[in-house]
Design brief:
The structure holds 2 protein chains of 2 kinds. By secondary structure, chain A is of the alpha/beta class. Chain A contains 10 helices and 10 strands. Chain A is globular and about 45 Å long. By secondary structure, chain B is mostly helical. Chain B has a single domain, classed as ABC transporter involved in vitamin B12 uptake, BtuC (Orthogonal Bundle), CATH 1.10.3470. Classes of the chains: A alpha/beta, B mainly alpha. The complex binds adenosine-5'-diphosphate and magnesium ion.
Chain lengths: 238, 304
C-alpha cells in the first residue's frame, strides 16, 4: 500500500444554509492520478476549494500526509505543497506570461531557483517560452490552459488539484492536454483531477470517485468504473 | 508680465499643486484597485500627515534648532510618511478588515466615522484654529524672465517625482507589486497562488497612506497654514483627480492630479480665484457624466 498523501473524511461544506458537500470521503495516495467526476453542480469544485482552504469546512477533516490542514489559510496549504489550477484557468490577463508563472512560485523564492523552475516549465510547455513577454490575456484558450498548468507547477507541488482543465478546449487540444497531464504525472506529481470529460479522466486516472449532489456515490479503480454500467450510462454516453 | 510668461507661471503653479493632488490620489486609486473601496478617510490621513509634519518641525525647532534645513526637511517628510503609513495600517486593520465581507454601505459609513474621529482627534490636540507652519528652508526664489520659481516648488516636484517613480518600481518590479496587481485582477486566483491577500491589502493601505502623509507636509509648507478641516476639501479634490485619471489606475492618478492642478491654476488665473474650487467639482461631475471610467481607466464593470 502506497503512502496516503491526501485524506478527506466526511467533509461537509455549506454555502449559506445550503449544504453542498454532505460528507465526502476520498483518498489520494502518493504518486497516483485520482479522478473526481460528476455532473455540473455536484460539488467537485467545492471539494477542491475546501482542500485549498478557500471555503470553510463545517464538519469532517482534511489531512495531508496525516496532518490536519482544514482551517489553515490558503497560503499555508500552498506552502505545504498543494496547488490548485482552478476552473476557468483564471490566469492574470493583464500580466505577462512570465509574471503569471512567477506568481505561481509563491513569494519566498530565490532568483536561482526561479530560473530552474522556469526552465522546467518551458521544457514542458515550449509555447510559453516564446510568449514569455506577452500579456496572458492575449493567449489562445489552449495556451492559457498551458499557462495555468505551468503556473500551478511553478510551486513544485506534491499534489496538484486540477479543476476541469479540458473545459472549453477543442477536441484535438483535449487529447494534447491529457498527454501533458500524463507527463506531469511522470515527473512525480500526484494529481487529483476533477473532470466532466469522464472518458478521458478515467483513462489517465488509476482511482476514481463519482460525486452526485455532494455525496460520493461510487468509487473504485478507474478501470472498474469504466466498465460500470451506471457510470457508462450517466457519464460515458451509454 | 507677458501673456506667455503668465501662462508659464500658471503652468508651474498647476504643476506644483497638481503633484500634491497626485500623491494623494494614488492612495484612493490603489485601494480602489484592490478592494473596490473608496476610502473616504483618506483625505484625513493627508490632513494628519500635515499635522505630523507641523509637529516634527516644532519638535526639531525645540530639540535641535541648529539642524541643517535639508536634514530637517527629510526628517519631517519621513515622520509624516511613517506616521501616515502606520495610521493607514491601523485604519485598515481596525475599521475595514472586519467589514470586508459585509455590505458596502457599512464600510462607507465606517469610513465617514473614521474621518470624524481623525478630525476631532487632531482638533483636540492642535486646536480648531488655523495653525501656522514655519518654513523649514529659507524662502528662495529664482526669476526666469518674469516667471517666479520658488525653492518649495522645486522640492515638491522633486519629492513627488521621486516617490511616484519609486511607487512605479514597487508596483511593476517587485514581488509585492506583482502580488498587488494579481490581487487587483483576480483575488481568488491570487489566494490560490499562495498570496496572503490580507497582507497585500494592508501593504496597499500603508503605501497609499504614506504618500498622503508626505502630501500633507508639502501642502503645509506650501500654504503655511493648515486646519483640521483641510482633509475634506483636498481629499475630495484628490478623489476627483483619481476619478479623472480612471479610478484604480495608477498612472491615471498621476495624470489626473496634474490635470486637475492645471485646470485649477488656469481657472483661478483666467476666470477668478473664487472659481478655483468650483473647477474641481465641475470636472468631477463632467467626468462622472461623460466618461465615468476616467481618462486611462478600463471599464468600471463588476468583476465576475
Ligand atoms: N459561492 C457559492 N455560493 C453559493 N452556492 C454555490 C457557490 N459555489 C457553488 N455553489 C453551489 O454549490 C453546488 C456545487 O457547486 P460546485 O462545487 O461548483 O459544483 P461542480 O464543480 O461539481 O460543478 C452547486 O449547486 C452550486 O450552485
Ligand atoms: Mg466545478
Amino acid at each position: 500500500m502506497a503512502e496516503g498523501l491526501l485524506s478527506v473524511e466526511n467533509l461537509r461544506v455549506r454555502y449559506g444554509t445550503v449544504e453542498v458537500l454532505k460528507g465526502v470521503t476520498l483518498q489520494v495516495q502518493m504518486g497516483q492520478i485520482v479522478a473526481l467526476i460528476g455532473a455540473n453542480g455536484a460539488g467537485k469544485s467545492t471539494t477542491l476549494m475546501a482542500i485549498s482552504g478557500l471555503v470553510r469546512v463545517v464538519k469532517g477533516s482534511i489531512r495531508l500526509a496525516g496532518e490536519p490542514v482544514d482551517g489553515l489559510p490558503p497560503e499555508a496549504i500552498v506552502a505545504k505543497g498543494v496547488t490548485q489550477v482552478p476552473e476557468g484557468r483564471r490566469i492574470f490577463p493583464r500580466m505577462t506570461v512570465l509574471e503569471n508563472l512567477l506568481l505561481g512560485m509563491g513569494p519566498r523564492r530565490q532568483k536561482q531557483e526561479r530560473r530552474k523552475e522556469l526552465d522546467w516549465i518551458f521544457e514542458l510547455f515550449p509555447v510559453l517560452r516564446d510568449r514569455e513577454r506577452q500579456l496572458a490575456g492575449t493567449l489562445s484558450g489552449g495556451e492559457q490552459q498551458m499557462l495555468a498548468l505551468g503556473r500551478g507547477l511553478m510551486a513544485r507541488p506534491k499534489l496538484l488539484l486540477l479543476d476541469e482543465p479540458s473545459l472549453g478546449l477543442a477536441p484535438k487540444l483535449v487529447a494534447q492536454l491529457f498527454e501533458v497531464i500524463r507527463q506531469i504525472h511522470r515527473h512525480g506529481v500526484t494529481i487529483l483531477l476533477v473532470e466532466q470529460n469522464a472518458y478521458q479522466a478515467l483513462r489517465v486516472a488509476s482511482q476514481a470517485y463519482v460525486l452526485e449532489s455532494g455525496c460520493v456515490v461510487l468509487e473504485g479503480s478507474a478501470a472498474d468504473l469504466r466498465e460500470n454500467p451506471a457510470v457508462k450510462q450517466a457519464y460515458l454516453g451509454g | 508680465m507677458t501673456p506667455g510668461d503668465f501662462f508659464f507661471q500658471q503652468l508651474l503653479n498647476g504643476l506644483t499643486i497638481g503633484s500634491i493632488y497626485a500623491l494623494i490620489a494614488l492612495g484612493y486609486t490603489m485601494v480602489y484597485g484592490i478592494i473596490q473601496l473608496i476610502n473616504f478617510a483618506h483625505g484625513e490621513i493627508f490632513m494628519v500627515g500635515a499635522y505630523l509634519g507641523l509637529a516634527a518641525i516644532l519638535l526639531i525647532g525645540k530639540v535641535h534648532p541648529g539642524l541643517n534645513p535639508t536634514a530637517g526637511l527629510l526628517l519631517t517628510l519621513l515622520a509624516a510618511a511613517v506616521g501616515g503609513g502606520f495610521l493607514g495600517l491601523v485604519i485598515e486593520r481596525v475599521a475595514y478588515r472586519p467589514l470586508r465581507q459585509g455590505p458596502k454601505l457599512s464600510v462607507l459609513i465606517t469610513a465617514i466615522g473614521v474621518s470624524f474621529f481623525l478630525q476631532n482627534a487632531v482638533m483636540l490636540v492642535f486646536g480648531a484654529q488655523d495653525r501656522y507652519v514655519p518654513p523649514l528652508l529659507q524662502v528662495h526664489r529664482w526669476q526666469i524672465g518674469s516667471v517666479t520659481v520658488t525653492l518649495m516648488q522645486v522640492i515638491i516636484l522633486a519629492v513627488s517625482i521621486g516617490l511616484m517613480a519609486g511607487l512605479q518600481r514597487i508596483v511593476y518590479r517587485t514581488g509585492l507589486g506583482r502580488a498587488m496587481r494579481a490581487t487587483a485582477q483576480d483575488p481568488l486566483a491570487a489566494r490560490l497562488m499562495g498570496i496572503s491577500v490580507d497582507r497585500v491589502i494592508a501593504a496597499t493601505f500603508c503605501i497609499g497612506s504614506a504618500l498622503a502623509g508626505v502630501g500633507g507636509v508639502l501642502f503645509g509648507l506650501t500654504y503655511s497654514t493648515i486646519n483640521f478641516h483641510d482633509g475634506y476639501l483636498i481629499g475630495l479634490k484628490a478623489f476627483t483627480a483619481a476619478v479623472l485619471g480612471g479610478i484604480g489606475n495608477i498612472p491615471g492618478a498621476m495624470l489626473g492630479g496634474l490635470l486637475l492642478g492645471f485646470l485649477e491654476a488656469f481657472g483661478a488665473a483666467y476666470l477668478s480665484t473664487q472659481w478655483k474650487n468650483v473647477v474641481a467639482f465641475t470636472v468631477l461631475v463632467l467626468v462622472l457624466l461623460l466618461r465615468p471610467r476616467g481618462l486611462l481607466g478600463e471599464r468600471v464593470a463588476e468583476r465576475a
